[in-house]
Amino acid sequence: GTVRTLNFPGYFFLTPPLYFIPDLLPPGVCSLLNPAAIYANNEISLGDVEIYGFDYDYTLAQYSNLLHSMIFNTARDILIEQFKYPEGLRKYEYIPGFAIRGLHYDVHKSLLMKIDAFHYVQLGTAYQGLKPVPDEEVIEMYGGTQHIPLYQMSDFYGKGPSIKQFMDIFSLPEMTLLSSVTDYFMTHNIEYDQVHLYKDISDAIKDVHVKGMMYKWIEKDMEKYILHGDETYAVLNRLVNHNKKLFLITNSPFSFVDKGMKHMVGKNWRDLFDMVIVQADKPNFFTDRRKPFRKMDEKGSLHWDKISKLEKGKIYKQGNLFDFLRLTGWRGSKVLYFGDHLYSDLADLMLRHGWRTGAIVPELETEIRIINTEQYMHSLTWQQALTGLLERMQMYQDAESRQVLLEWMKERQEIRSLSKNLFNPQFGSIFRTFHNPTYFSRRLIRFSDIYMASISCLLNYDVNFTFYPRRTPLQHEAPLWMDQLCTGCMKTPFLEEMVHIR
């Protein structure tokens, strides 16, 4: 390699020769990320997968955002009409871009916030009502720190004693309603009990689902609410044509799933599946052995007979995974299950049962399109450069250097805020805080072998394709900043200061 000296006091850098293998890069190769790609956290060969399992909502059926406004409005009206909340709440409408998935909510503080993989609140992303809380107030609320200890934060499923994590796509209207009602009480100086507020909104949202209101809206206008039906049809047919076995485990009722699948796949959709399990009560389905399977007819009537085998073409209600495994013998890594909820769909399957898992993350498509913009690439590159300069500039203690350092820190902070706002002005990306992965990201990596924007991404790959995760460098393996390389020039600069301590 050639040795070049860079004009940074006390440093010189070795730059090795670069070898290019043109054949590896086809002509006209695109340097942008592909929103329709499948991304791997763990190596997985589809050739080894014999059985494909699916959740229904937001996995086989993707819904349009119009649904969120309907859920918000209906739950808001339930609060007013049944829980006797103030009539003034009717002026609040759903705000489509307000919340993002994976946020935490501190029930006792009415605080909605984004937390990183190390349990630190990302400053600038803590909201009470619809207004941000100043950083110093957030730090004061948590006893002089941004850190929230594990016991307070959450159990395995994201539900702590006072802090809840919203992992579900259906929870976007819930977070917006919590923020809107809090905003109303705060702007009108009305005293309220934070625990009651959380519980009431949670119950009102639950009503929308449990009483089947949402199912009715979707059934009435499938064209309006269900997206990409043709792609769902194509994925399932392709798998069956390659002799894969398919099953469905959903918490939704049969009549709703049946209508949606007929709309997307056709009236004989059940012929594609070896097993259909509805109202499964996930995540309890994966952990609780008590509920047996019940056979169900198409009209929804339950049979009383004991289930000793699971038959193709039949519909089953409830049940549990332990009976499912015993009756099918489908174990380990020959099963790949897709779902959108990291906790109630994927966590137990991966950690307890050794199935392979695929996370459906619809937000991925939008986020990748933003990452591909010139504005984002420029700001990220400059951010990285500034960070490296800051790290090196710390060495110089003179007044002029300190001043430059402060200016660079300010500039870096401005660029970081700018990058965050490209994704969502309130909370930024669902995958990252400024530089760390989010708590959501860490869970995504922990509980899924592969992740993608929708199951239609499978159509871009051969059925025997092997996904290899990219070897991303650990911090000590590939320094971004060449000054971390040992070139024999950086000894221990503060050694002289320490000598007199002996």
TrEMBL record:
<dbReference type="InterPro" id="IPR008380">
    <property type="entry name" value="HAD-SF_hydro_IG_5-nucl"/>
</dbReference>
<dbReference type="GO" id="GO:0008253">
    <property type="term" value="F:5'-nucleotidase activity"/>
</dbReference>
<feature type="active site" description="Nucleophile">
    <location>
        <position position="55"/>
    </location>
</feature>
<feature type="binding site">
    <location>
        <position position="57"/>
    </location>
    <ligand>
        <name>GMP</name>
    </ligand>
</feature>
<protein>
    <recommendedName>
        <fullName>5'-nucleotidase domain containing 2</fullName>
    </recommendedName>
</protein>
<dbReference type="GO" id="GO:0046872">
    <property type="term" value="F:metal ion binding"/>
</dbReference>
<keyword id="KW-0479">Metal-binding</keyword>
<dbReference type="InterPro" id="IPR036412">
    <property type="entry name" value="HAD-like_sf"/>
</dbReference>
<dbReference type="Pfam" id="PF05761">
    <property type="entry name" value="5_nucleotid"/>
</dbReference>
<keyword id="KW-0378">Hydrolase</keyword>
<dbReference type="InterPro" id="IPR016695">
    <property type="entry name" value="Pur_nucleotidase"/>
</dbReference>
<keyword id="KW-0460">Magnesium</keyword>
<feature type="binding site">
    <location>
        <position position="55"/>
    </location>
    <ligand>
        <name>Mg(2+)</name>
    </ligand>
</feature>
<dbReference type="InterPro" id="IPR023214">
    <property type="entry name" value="HAD_sf"/>
</dbReference>
<comment type="similarity">
    <text>Belongs to the 5'(3')-deoxyribonucleotidase family.</text>
</comment>
<feature type="active site" description="Proton donor">
    <location>
        <position position="57"/>
    </location>
</feature>
<feature type="binding site">
    <location>
        <position position="340"/>
    </location>
    <ligand>
        <name>Mg(2+)</name>
    </ligand>
</feature>
